[in-house]
């Protein structure tokens, strides 16, 4: 071996040291890269919307929200502007961007936002229509009262049916306007017996064909609340109960209201013997009604009225169909 090709021990040690140094730098670089990739994955996972990062081979990275949406990614396309897409009854806002050879897509669930926008639009339209209906309904109510005094006795029942129909429309108009403006309670003390009298009067003006018995709490007690609002709240439940009994096969029915005091609340429970509730999930959805004759605002307003009195309205679980209404004492 020639002297020129020989490596000295010093040179060999230096080469070994350089090899270790390169290996350490590579390991540090790899650790930094793994840490960066892990950070990116955590950031992507932390985002509230579904994220996909695609390359020519398919999905490079996706978060759990994206995985939960399954085949939605197959419907997505790259566009210069954001767009909306319907998938499995939900609405999504789609955004896209590119970086080098990769495409990033995001899908944000805007179903609730769209629902609120539609609800606000429907509320505005309903409030406008209610204002337009109010004047002619007032005229019909006044004229029917005059007509009732002048018709022959056998036609009085017809006029009374007209008055009951007008009363129903007035209730719908009042509920719609209240929903559009919001519920504000004005508290004043009054006795339950006064409110019970108003409820008996309201039931008497609501048309029904079955033989229905009504049981109200006999105990008299004081409430510090908005009497008009509570009259609307309880009337909503009573008329719903009447409608449910009207749809039942039996020729008679029962509406029962119980009362007790529980932990600082006036607690009322209203039961009826009518048909069961078909879709309990939609009970408190505005403009969605489980009844043929419903406008979808009665129970929504009832809950808002109870909440304005620091109370609540809930569907009771059990063998008897009923609702629990709590009003703060």
Walk me through the structure.
By secondary structure, the protein is an alpha+beta fold. It folds into three domains: about 10-110, Beta-Lactamase (2-Layer Sandwich); about 115-180; about 185-329, Histidine kinase-like ATPase, C-terminal domain (Heat Shock Protein 90). It has helices spanning about 10-45, 65-70, 110-150, 155-180, 190-205, 225-245, 300-310, and strands at about 50-55, 60, 85, 90-100, 100-110, 190, 210-215, 220-225, 250-260, 265-270, 310-315, 320-329. The strands form three sheets. A five-stranded antiparallel beta sheet has the order 2-1-5-4-3. Strand 9 (about 250-260) and strand 10 (about 265-270) form a beta hairpin. The N and C termini lie far apart (about 105 Å).
Compact overview of the structure:
With 329 residues, this protein is α+β, with helices and mostly antiparallel strands.
Tag the structure with descriptive keywords.
alpha+beta, five-stranded mixed sheet, 3 domains, 12 strands, Beta-Lactamase, 7 helices, five-stranded antiparallel sheet, Heat Shock Protein 90, about 325 residues, about 45% helix
Give the secondary structure arrangement, pairings included.
Layout lengths: L8 H38 L3 E6 L2 E5 L1 H5 L14 E5 L2 E10 L2 E8 L1 H40 L5 H26 L6 E4 H13 L6 E5 L6 E4 L1 H20 L5 E11 L2 E8 L25 H11 L3 E4 L6 E7 L1
